[in-house]
Amino acid sequence: MLKMMKMMLNSSQVSHFTLDAYLDPGLFKYVIFLTVLCFYVFIIVANVLLIVVICMNRSLHEPMYLFLCSLFVNELYGSTGLFPLLLLHILSDVHSVSAPFCFLQNVCLYSYGGGEYLILAIMSYDRYLAICRPLQYSTHMTGNRIAALIAFAWLCPLLLCVVMTSLSATLRLCGNVINKVYCDNYSIVKLSCGATTVNNIYGLFITCCSIFLPLALIFVSYAKILRICFSGCKQTRQKAVSTCSPHLASLLNFSCGAFFEIMQSRFNMNNIPNMMRIFLSLYWLTCQPLLNPLVYGLNLSKMRVICKSLISAEM
Fold first, then answer.
1. Can you give the pLDDT at residue 223?
2. Which of 97, 166, 218, 281 could be joined to 124 by an S-S link, Cβ 3.0–4.6 Å?
């Protein structure tokens, strides 16, 4: 990884990038720092708690909860790619980051986003099998297949993002100012002095693979689930609502954040206040890790009961 970062540094001929979206709130920066730190601590505690709950309770060693566990691990991965540098820059007067670290953060954040969509797509397929094909569920969701799906959801976005970042690193850049609070691939591409056709084509390709294909799978899965629900009994509808509503809430929340980020990256947003642009750029990276533990921990009955008993035992 370090060797790849050195190659990126040499090829881009930029030693550092300046993150230009940070404001100067004066002494208020300490309040912002503590608020963001509290968010980060909550994300770590909540997601780690649910990971431990799933791993330690054999009753939760089912495909749905194993996929949830991978989702919570992905939240920790994405948050760690953002919050430490964000907290450091909130207190700092100089908002620059070395080129290798900037490229590394770019890989982390975008592979987190791609992994999030793939895991949500796998979870929708799991719910489709459980509700629409319950008799075939155990034969389809074997241990080996579960492991293969989780590995695919993590490794495929990582590989795609490494290639994307490597292409960006080969560009000759005419500047080093990124108008965001974190390193963003498209912002780096826009700094290029030369042609970026290959980068733009690959960007569309990775968007299709990471967003539109998983969304298509989710749409097909839920279309079939809805058809079964409308034609089935009341018990089937209740089961579908109880297990699918947290997933849909998570999907809608993350899709809204991803939509805001794509709109801000691709279109001129200078007419929007800087504070609003910062909020929109951070929404997809902060709200999902914050809300997912609450959504799944409170809405899935098994996890809710076990979490309550664990907290009661500690008290």
1. 86
2. 218
- Give me the half-sphere count of Cα atoms (radius 13 Å) on the Cβ side of residue 177: 4
> Tokens in use for 113?
């986003």
Q: Per residue in 210-262, pLDDT tens?
A: 889 999 999 999 888 888 777 766 666 676 677 777 888 888 889 888 888 88
* Over residues 132-145, mean pLDDT: 88
For residue 107, what are the CA distances in angstroms to 1, 8, 160? 11, 12, 9
Of 249, 224, 235, 225, nearest in space to 300 by CA: 249
User: Which residue, among 196, 187, 192, 199, has the nearest Cα to 173 in the 3D structure?
Assistant: 192
How many other C-beta atoms are found inside a 10 Å radius of the C-beta of residue 229? 20
Q: Give the CB-side neighbour count of residue 189, counting CA atoms within 13 A.
A: 20
Contact at 8 Å (CB) between 76 and 43? Answer: yes
Q: How far apart are CA 247 and CA 241, in angstroms?
A: 10
CA pair distance 247, 116, nearest whole angstrom:
12
Contact of 308 with 314, CB cutoff 8 Å: no
